[in-house]
Design a protein that fits this description.
The chain is α/β, with parallel strands linked by helices and 539 residues long. It is 27% helix and 18% strand. The longest helix is centred in the middle third of the chain and has 16 residues. The structure holds alpha-D-glucopyranose.
Length: 539
């Protein structure tokens, strides 16, 4: 029997390096993270996703792995990892780890052996004697990355790298590489993880080789799921796959491939809706959502550790989002995105921020939060590329480095945001725990409501027309229950008229900021950025 915990999990994403330093060297570590589980538990998350923490030259925040079977000594030891995983489980928190096997670091011994022509590893990467004509096409980091094929001086051939040139693509078409991927998964499953956030899945499935014909990339996902379920029945694959909705069936299969896929298109529509103060972009998207297998799930998110990728919006729409949330060139990245945190984009307005979290939590899928957003942290645009949104967690207003580390500020892995309205003296976890109307407490209450509304994880929402373009009203039913969520996305009050088809005979507030449905008029008045959740049926 499947264990479908991920249909209603709430995931909190952490970068060990920037969460909590326990030994004063300026670098976050597993002991530090373990000491901060209280915060994650208090927020109401049920699962932690760790960004890569493996040994790495760290030229892409750990996404350039040099050893898949270890912990980078800067963060601790394998023993510290197991202590952390145990402590998380004690609190009922599951752990997902990043599986970055589209590519490895060029410093990985496999690549070093491959470039040296070692027969065992010759074919582990994607090599060509001459540079393909389209080498300059399809770079992922335009403006920073020039090509996808780089000449290796030792082997005197070109190797393929979809991402930075220090990240050589593994040749997944090679059965030995696929066997090794299973070994890596088996290793971390044995250490107690509940699955993997799988990096760059569409790129991993690109088949650039002809040597191993017969390999069927999308079917490979079924093999991975089978392997996982044999080793640990509850384990999942949470895929980074920025795909159009039409391709979802290839990735979900009949429920036998990926369990969860990040809904990147929805993320872009949310920001368009926030920019316009109109529900339309999200409502239209929800209406067109394809059916997915019952055992599959979307992952919904506001922000993550990368830029907001707006590449799937039309040019004019992207310009609208840029104008609203990232008008300065320095805020934009890779011709498609914004390297900003949520809170500064929404002007630090806690009502609007809470509304944004509420929308995300009301949409179908498994919500995933990026650490620090729950307290409204800001970004540091003086840092390069995506590092702007990866500054250390702000714990206390009264300690140096915001309580992240006892090291001298210059020795911290990245500077803590100290100045301006988002500096740690104003924005920190300790203060927000104590103030009952803080963003942290609001997000916590929202998560509590979401966990009490399993319909949202299981059901498919219906958009309810309430007569005001600023209002997103969603009704989601599952089995005997039904939930209604109503959000005013605009900076002005709104009046929602609830249609006759909606049965209000047993309506109860599930999460309320005080607005009440007027039963006779069937109307609901919402403040600017106001929202309300109701239970229409069920317990
Ligand atoms: C994914 C990660 C990103 C990384 C890239 C290459 O997109 O989210 O941070 O740079 O893969 O591994």
């Amino acid at each position: 029997m499947f264990n479908l915990w991920y249909k209603n999990a709430v995931v909190y994403c952490v970068d060990v390096e920037t969460f909590q330093d326990s030994d004063g060297d300026g670098i976050g570590d597993f002991k530090g993270l373990t000491s901060r589980l209280d915060h994650i538990e208090a927020l109401g998350a049920t699962c932690i996703w760790l960004l890569p923490f493996y040994p790495s030259p760290n030229r892409d925040n750990g996404y350039d792995v040099a050893d898949y079977y270890n912990v980078d000594p800067r963060y601790g030891t394998l023993g510290d990892f197991v202590e952390f995983a145990h402590a998380a489980h004690e609190r009922g928190l599951r752990v997902l780890v990043d599986l970055v096997v589209n590519h490895s670091s060029i410093e990985h011994p496999w690549f070093q052996a491959s470039r040296a022509g070692d027969p065992k590893y010759r074919d582990w990467y994607v090599w060509r004697k001459t540079k393909p004509e389209d080498a300059e096409k399809g770079v992922i980091f335009p403006g920073v990355q020039k090509t996808t094929w780089t000449r290796d001086t030792k082997r005197k051939e070109y190797y393929f790298h979809r991402f930075y040139e220090h990240q050589a693509d593994l040749n997944i078409a090679n059965p030995q590489v696929r066997e090794e991927i299973e070994r890596i998964m088996g290793f971390w499953l044995a250490l107690g993880v509940s699955g993997f956030r799988m990096d760059a899945v569409p790129f991993m499935l690109e088949d650039l080789s002809s040597a191993h014909s017969g390999w069927e990339p999308h079917r490979y996902l079924s093999q991975l799921q089978t392997f996982l379920s044999w080793r640990r029945s509850e384990a999942i694959l949470l895929a980074e796959a920025n795909i159009p909705m039409e391709e979802a069936p290839d990735y979900f299969g009949t429920g036998d491939r990926l369990h969860v896929i990040f809904n990147f298109p929805l993320n872009q529509k949310m920001f368009l809706a926030f920019a316009r103060g109109e529900a339309g972009p999200v409502a239209d998207f929800v209406k067109a959502l394809p059916d997915i297998p019952q055992t599959a799930q979307w992952a919904t998110f506001l922000r993550n550790h990368d830029e907001i990728d707006l590449g799937r919006l039309e040019d004019g729409e992207r310009e609208e989002v840029f104008a609203a949330f990232g008008p300065e060139e320095d805020m934009q990245l890779y011709d498609r995105g914004l390297r900003r945190r949520l809170a500064p984009m929404l002007g630090g307005d806690e009502r609007r921020l809470a509304m944004a979290f509420s929308v995300m939590l009301a949409l179908p899928g498994m919500p995933v939060l990026w650490y620090g957003d729950e307290i409204g942290m800001g970004e540091d645009l003086s840092l390069s590329e995506r590092h702007a949104v990866r500054t250390p967690m702000q714990w206390r207003g009264t300690l140096p480095n915001g309580g992240f580390s006892d090291a001298a500020p210059k020795d911290c892995v990245r500077p803590v945001v100290a100045d301006g309205p988002f500096g740690y003296r104003h924005i920190n976890a300790e203060r927000q725990m104590l103030e009952i109307d803080s963003l942290f407490c609001r997000v916590r209450n929202l998560i509590r409501a979401r966990r009490g509304a399993a319909e949202i994880g299981w059901g498919k929402p219906e958009v309810v027309d309430v007569g005001d373009p600023a209002v997103l009203a969603l009704r989601t039913g599952w089995q005997d229950g039904e939930v209604l969520t109503v959000h005013n996305m605009a900076d002005r009050p709104a009046l929602a008229r609830l249609p006759d088809g909606l049965d209000l005979s047993d309506v109860r507030p599930l999460l309320s900021s005080g607005a009440r449905i007027d039963g006779e008029e069937r109307t609901l008045r919402l403040d600017a950025y106001g929202f309300e959740w109701f239970r229409l049926k069920g317990k």
